[in-house]
Design a protein that fits this description.
The structure is a single chain. The protein is of the alpha+beta class and 193 residues long. The protein has a single domain, classed as Aminopeptidase (3-Layer(aba) Sandwich). Helix content is 30%, strand content 32%. The protein has a seven-stranded mixed beta sheet with strand order 1-2-3-4-5-7-6, with helices on both faces. Helix 1 packs across helix 3. It starts with a strand and ends in a 9-residue tail after the last strand. Keywords: Acyltransferase, Transferase.
């Protein structure tokens, strides 16, 4: 197990979050998304978006967390972003009230592939769940590319299940199917036997 920890993102993390996102997408999604789309993603543009997400979140329940690997020096190796479920969490044609209340949506949960299988994803998810409990969320949803076996396997190994919703993203005239997963946010653990 790697030495690592999770903390809230800071403004100065935006460039590293963008770098991790781009590196991860280019490796993990190279067979799912058109190559020219991945090649043309602008890291500086992503960094500006992450800077805004960290510095000016839409609400206190919108969070960006980062995973840090500790070695001779520390490295930002992954991140998770989530917030109250909105229209982006819905399937096409699904009514706005379909998800109900108390639902949080995971918009990103990425660990750079070279740092995978070291516990960073589990630490990110665990820290996110703690925040969701604090905010009173009772259920979480996340969209995953149908062909992204690694993400689906990770989430289902932690109790997430497919909820039957599907959609296809139009990525430069290529439809890329996604499936939605959900999980109940576990209640606060108690110390009583």
């Amino acid at each position: 197990m790697a030495l690592g920890f999770v903390r809230p993102a800071r403004p100065e993390d935006a460039a590293e979050i963008a770098r991790v996102q781009l590196a991860t997408w280019r490796v993990a999604y190279r067979r799912l998304l058109p190559r020219h789309v991945l090649d043309n993603l602008d890291e500086a543009w992503l960094a500006r978006r992450w800077s805004a997400a960290v510095q000016e979140p839409p609400s206190a329940a919108h969070r960006v967390l980062v995973a840090v690997e500790q070695a001779e020096q520390s490295y930002l190796v992954g991140f998770a972003a989530s917030g109250p479920a909105d229209d982006e969490a819905l399937a096409p044609g699904e009514p706005a009230a379909a998800l109900g209340t108390g639902v949080v949506a995971v918009t990103d949960l990425l660990v750079e592939p070279r740092w995978g299988r070291r516990g960073h994803g589990s630490r990110l998810l665990s820290a996110a769940v703690e925040g969701w409990r604090t905010d009173g969320f009772t259920r979480a949803v996340a969209w995953a590319f149908d062909g992204d076996e690694a993400t689906r396997k990770f989430l289902t190994s932690t109790g997430w299940e497919l909820d039957g919703a599907a959609r296809a993203l139009d990525v430069d005239d290529m439809l890329v199917p996604q499936v939605r997963l959900h999980v109940a946010v576990p209640a606060e653990p108690t110390d009583t036997p």
